[in-house]
Write a structure and sequence with these properties.
This protein is of the alpha+beta class. It is elongated, with a radius of gyration of 35 Å. The longest helix has 33 residues, at 503-535. The chain has helices at 2-8, 51-63, 85-95, 325-330, 356-365, 503-535, and strands at residues 19-23, 28-35, 38-45, 68-73, 101-106, 111-120, 129-137, 149-155, 160-167, 172-173, 187-190, 238-242, 245-247, 253-255, 259-264, 267-269, 303-304, 309-312, 315-317, 320-322, 336-340, 349-354, 368-373, 376-381, 391-398, 408-415, 418-419, 427-432, 444-449, 454-458, 460-462, 465-470, 474-480. The chain starts with a helix and ends with a helix. The protein is built from 6 helices and 33 strands. Helix content is 15%, strand content 33%.
């Protein structure tokens, strides 16, 4: 962080007109922008948002309740389009309570996703605002993403935000093919851009007007000398105002403040110091503001209206779980079907069956299927099913291994008769971790067994769970992230002692070395014995 503070600390930006305030030397900050009568606040927070950071954001939003708020985070949405654990915490503690939040932007996970939540702020059952939560991260693509970035164009005349994705390096729009992935990189957000109604209340207003009426002028005044003019034609008992302008031969100009004098019976006297008025009364709240809170006086947190999520229980047939067709019809576009298998958490293996027609509806609506089964959660986007035919998602709990902090799960996805070997957008996996084995500052990651060792995949740990995106089937478990040797265990016997290189090769090398050493000893002994016999 030393280099960050040196080059990107608060002192680099604090003199900018839009820069609001820093959090921990610019690990977070906010900007204030005003365009065409609409006031915005942009809040940015870096990696690892904690309670202190959440409190800071809430205080900033409370200090600027009439500004439209857009929040920006390193991590918020997962690659599947659902919120990460820290994203859920931010949603509950920051997005819902603050009625001026309309959008959340994030990265970290390679994908482009949009999650839309209508929010009921006043508890009447109707949506008062819509929060658009966007993930745009292209770092997993060729050349580190080829410079693709998300652009938000605010069209004041059309009352909409036009979202685009563009690479100046490639001079190209849309990272994802818009025919194959419609509205993934390019879409429209409706947004009322009517200028906000504002009211200022005060009992004292002072307006200074600079006129062009010339009293008199003096030329060729040497710098430092006093210029004097005579002001004729003044009436008694009257206040007059004046100011002075100076200029030089090079075109430079300077103008003073406006001063006042009062004439009394023909004499000029200084005016009395005006009485400082009391503070203004509280202005009435203007109607039709951008906050859309309906004049609500309390600050009770709102609740999301679940029009884009369907939580369902499975239709079971032994170890087979299925979903009714009607569920896919009820959920909205870009929605989420949550399959609740928590009552089947004790089953070691389970298969989720999807029909080809259900998969086609998932693709057409860009749905995400979330599978909850005890200590494992999977978020599966429709793009995983790239082939044709029915699909089977297989989840199998394996034997525990040494040093693992979670259960071990084998995951596979078949469509038709083919095993899907790579997941285009990735499946987001969340594993519950045994808290008793986790240190206060533990770094927990998910790993995949590659046949020889537990290969690092990644993950973010929060609230007893670790979450990461996986791009292929395999066998997965959570470990504390230390050095590779500590997690190079044997998946079958759980001894956790496999070396970094191939075991059979090492065994052969050691055996060969011992045989060579034994042969050398025997040869030396034989020659010594023979030499001794020859001497006799």
């Amino acid at each position: 962080m030393i280099n960050y503070y040196q080059f990107f600390g608060a002192d680099r930006f604090e003199n900018r007109s839009y820069y609001g305030e820093s959090y921990l030397n610019n690990r977070g900050h906010y900007d204030l922008l005003s365009v065409n009568g609409i006031d915005f606040i942009m809040i940015y927070m870096g990696w690892g948002v904690d309670e202190e950071g959440i409190d800071w954001m809430n205080q900033v939003l409370a200090d600027h309740p009439n500004r439209i708020a857009i929040l920006n985070f390193h991590e918020y949405l997962l690659a599947s389009g659902s919120r990460s654990p820290i994203g859920n915490e931010i949603f509950q503690k920051v997005v819902l309570p603050n009625e001026n939040v309309i959008a959340v932007l994030s990265g970290h996970y390679h994908n482009a996703q949009t999650l839309i939540d209508p929010i009921d702020d006043n508890g009447d059952g109707a949506s008062d605002r819509t929060v658009y939560q966007m993930l745009a991260d292209y770092q997993g693509g060729p050349e580190g993403g080829q410079g693709y970035m998300r652009i938000l164009n605010f069209d004041m005349d059309a009352n909409q935000i036009y979202v685009q994705t563009y690479s100046p390096y490639m001079d190209d729009y849309n990272y994802y093919n818009p025919e194959e992935f419609p509205e993934k990189d390019e879409f429209i957000i409706p947004f009322d851009m009517t200028a906000q109604t504002k009211k200022v209340a005060t009992d004292y207003v002072e307006v200074n007007v600079y006129t062009n009426k010339l009293i008199d002028q003096v030329e060729n005044v040497t710098s430092g000398e006093v210029a004097t003019v005579l002001w004729n034609g003044l009436e008694p008992e009257k206040e007059y105002f004046w100011y002075a302008e100076s200029s030089d031969e090079f075109g430079g100009k300077s103008r003073s403040k406006i001063w006042s004098v009062v004439t009394k019976e023909g004499e000029i006297v200084e005016p009395e110091t005006p009485e400082i008025p009391a503070g203004p009364e509280e202005p009435e709240t203007p109607g039709d503001g951008q906050n859309n809170n309906g004049g609500k006086e309390d600050n009770e947190p709102g609740v999301p209206i679940s029009t884009n999520k369907q939580v369902v229980e499975p239709v079971l047939n032994g170890k087979m779980a299925m979903i009714n067709d009607s569920v896919f019809d009820k959920v909205n576009e870009k929605g989420n079907i949550v399959l609740d298998l928590n009552n089947q958490a004790e089953l070691e293996s389970l298969e989720i069956h999807l029909t080809e027609a259900q998969i086609e509806k998932m693709k057409r609506k860009s749905l995400v299927l979330t599978i909850q089964k005890g200590d494992i959660v999977l978020d599966i986007p429709a793009s995983v099913f790239a082939g044709r035919g029915n699909a089977v998602i297989s989840i199998e709990r394996q034997a525990r291994v040494a040093k693992s902090l979670s259960n071990v799960y084998k995951l596979s996805v078949k469509q038709g008769e083919k095993l899907i070997k790579s997941f285009l957008e990735g499946i987001t996996m969340t594993l519950a971790v045994e808290a008793k084995n986790v240190g206060q500052l533990a770094d927990i990651k998910i790993r995949n067994w590659n046949g020889q060792k537990w290969e690092l995949i990644g993950g973010e740990y929060a609230d007893g769970k670790v979450t990461t995106a996986i791009n292929q089937p395999g066998t997965f478990a959570a470990f504390e992230h230390t050095d590779e040797k500590n997690v190079a265990g044997d998946s079958k016997n759980g001894n956790g002692v496999l070396p970094e290189t191939a075991t059979n090769l090492i065994n052969l090398m050691v055996t060969g070395f011992l045989l060579l050493l034994a042969a050398s000893i025997l040869l030396v002994a034989y020659r010594r014995r023979k030499f001794g016999l020859d001497l006799k």
